[in-house]
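Researcher: Structure prediction, please.
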Amino acid sequence: MSFSADDVRYMSEALQLARRGRFTTQPNPRVGCVIVKDGVVVGTGYHARAGGPHAEVAALKQAGYRAFGATAYVTLEPCAHHGRTPPCANELVIAGLKRVVMATLDANPLVAGKGKKILDDAGIETLAGVLEEEARTLNAGFLRRMNGGLPWTRLKLAMSLDGRTGMASGESKWITGPDARRDVQQWRAMSSAIITGIGTMLADDPSLTVRPTEWENWTSGEPVQPWRVILDAGFRTPPTANVLKQPGRTIIVGTHSQLDRQTALSDAGAEIWVLSGTNGRVDLKALLQRLAKEGANEVLVEAGATVAGSFARAGLVDEYVIYQAPVLMGSSARPLLDWPMQFMREQRKLVITDVRMVGSDIRLLARTKTL
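Model: Predicted structure follows.
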């Protein structure tokens, strides 16, 4: 495959458009489209929200008759099935496009090469793979859900320079500064669900929402509030907890029936799931599979060392989001993960993908899996 400089340039613009939907499109993928005629951009669009126009349709509407004989740059293979909107591949054929360039093919089995085939059969020149890695990164959760039946799982951690997350007394607020805490709001907004444990619930009584005072600074559309998922084997969450006073779904996941407690929580607005694993703990993989079946593309685990360590040990973390504050907390403070290892052969290697300053703190991104 041969890509021109223009192919890369216009696909880069389409990816920038797609990123505008990163807080609002779930469970759909983030998609952008740029239509070019004789070296001039005549139409642009992006998918803003599930049920709304797809990127290609928005770009075609803007381009109008100028789309005839033009080239469309799309960050994901145009859809080929009837959902809440008609197939975008057919719309491109009807508009008379001459060429369609795709960043990556769709992993959705309802599409998966079928959109490209519709275009090919109509005599439209197609090309796939331009800036593919960037496109797949943007839709890591959607692609993982379609390919493996699991959401892309991020584990958010905050620690001191010496790798500690809280004092032995239980104190943990605040290790990182206000800029890092604001940055976390964007990770929440990109997530379909936030998972925490009963220990965090009882200690902090968090709301686990994206705060309106934050999103108005970085998106024009209101983010979809993530589902709040509490790992609570014995259903000890108080019916008066803050998470149950927030809009949207709160899911409390236990391991065995506690009818009176479950009824009280259900009456307070919680959804009750029972997913029993080993040693009286929640089956974490079954939980992620069920969240994926309900449309969760990305989940964010925000919890203490015990829950964080459980996800890590089970090999269920795709990406670590680690904030490191310029403080020392001492050897008696709590570790980053509850994950005892005895030998060097037990170590788990990560791939660091990004390191940057967020206020006075360092933010490090590391992956355990490739896309």
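Model: The two ends are 21 Å apart (CA to CA).
Researcher: Thanks, that helps.
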